[in-house]
Design brief:
The chain is mainly alpha-helical. It is built from seven helices and three strands, in the order αααβααββαα. It has two domains: 125 residues, Orthogonal Bundle (Arc Repressor Mutant, subunit A), CATH 1.10.10.10; 31 residues.
Length: 160
Amino acid sequence: MKTSKQDSNQREEKATYVWLVLSKAAKSVEHNALLSISGLGLGLSDFAVLELLLHKGPQLINVLGKKVLLTSGSITTAVDRLEAKKLVTRIRDPQDLRFRVVQLTPKGRRVIESAFIRHAADMEETIAVLDASERVELVRLLKKLGLFAAARLQLDKAQS
């Protein structure tokens, strides 16, 4: 039995179908990203920490953990591992000596700059199917969806 164009459009309008397609696409892109990162000799959390430090500069360890979505224990373990490899160092926060700031070492900067160039090229190959205007539109739509979904969660949380 053939489905008509109208049936196909109606299916594509359903939220469950959008979620399914979004989920499958995200998993495929994520798998490409993970292969890229593992090919660089870094784990995902190590890469995330180094990349954030490269692009955002030194960070308080607790802020760093929140930004790369790691728990307090996991970010400490990741920073310990990176510090053992001499890729990052911890210094006391000059404004509040109770806190530690994590920053790249010169070796860490060299490693992540090289790794990020390779990763960016791998991601360009993965996303090459979309032209510039399609990428801009996709980002706009994903942000719109993500912000709405996050707001909906906050509303549900507030009502609980």
